[in-house]
């Protein structure tokens, strides 16, 4: 086992141990040739390991190096070299003064939704790049996400990743991945896919906003795997307005999950609407290993401190502005359907252009988007039942492209407590490409039922029977409950 001060490959001097786990130890080191800090990941080769197990450790190191070398992405830890030290493989990696997302969750319990959305956006971007390169990470979890003091999140540990064309190098009986964040198909023994990474990312973000992963962290791995493989994910309670996106990512059927790029877009759009509160833990200061470089590095650190103070002041002002704006009436426009429950299947995508209006009243009222006071008074009013049916039909004709107009067809209480604000409303509707209605029926005085079929952007569909409570405000029927 290496110790502080050892020189690896006659070049990398170990400064201090920064972490360790079942698979090895990570050191901060100094590259004597290029005069830069690096991380050295010393892979564990225990006394008594068989030749097969030793070869597995070496293969794991080479695998991680090869796969990471295929990625050049700002949210992926770079690998520079692979060397051996006393018969043990060592990865020479980018050194990032940071703490892990697991550390942050342990310290704070639950994290603000805006923080989680920003972290999720960056890691989804990293996964999108990996998937484009044909790489399945297979072990997305909080401990493998590093957070810096300047709001950067990076994905690390591609040690059990799999690339197209690679043979599996995991020994028989060794679980490839962390049970608490495994998707159900992997828990059932199937191979991991790109969709499996998306599920694991969803489980990780779920843990960040709820304080624990969807099925907990049972010490009994077999019991935990059984729950993951057979049970539905409990709906998150503190994730608003992330709820719809998380539910989408955590769907049991991999075909109904979004791609990593879609997750990046959905979380990115949400993050842009929320206060910039990214309380990443302060990085552990590196110990100086060379006098001249350490001295010259202090001035930029002080300037960074001043910059951070200025940014924090700006953030406070921004938060005040955002809070004020969110409490103002939304401008008139076009919008999509309500996120009426915490299940992704409870909101509807864009209405099919062939969705029929009620045949008995389709010619008695002008379209809702062009109705004016004068036009209402020049046409005989439809009966209340027809008005209710038309209100729901007209609403879903806007979905998912006319979100602003749809937003104005909901009561203020429904907007905030069911749709979870306009940001949550937008995030929800981004997962759908179309919606269609059938069996739209009104029951007086103010109830409408309908069978709603939602089409996801990946082609999957789901149908729900929904009951709406309607309220008339300013002469317009608005959705008040569902």
Automatic annotation (TrEMBL):
Annotated binding of ATP, by residue: 41
Entry's EC annotation: 2.7.11.1
Keywords noted in UniProt: ATP-binding, Kinase, Membrane, Nucleotide-binding, Serine/threonine-protein kinase, Transferase, Transmembrane, Transmembrane helix
Organism ancestry: Bacteria, Bacillati, Actinomycetota, Actinomycetes, Pseudonocardiales
Keyword match Kinase: yes
Low complexity biased stretches: 331-381
Annotated SUPFAM superfamilies: Protein kinase-like (PK-like)
Region of interest (Disordered), residue spans: 277-300, 330-381
Record domain Protein kinase: where: 12-267
TM region positions: 306-326
InterPro entries, per database record: Kinase-like_dom_sf, Prot_kinase_dom, Protein_kinase_ATP_BS, Ser/Thr_kinase_AS
GO molecular function, one term: ATP binding
Domain of life of the native organism: Bacteria
A Pfam short name: Pkinase
CDD domains reported for this sequence: STKc_PknB_like
Protein name stated in the entry: non-specific serine/threonine protein kinase
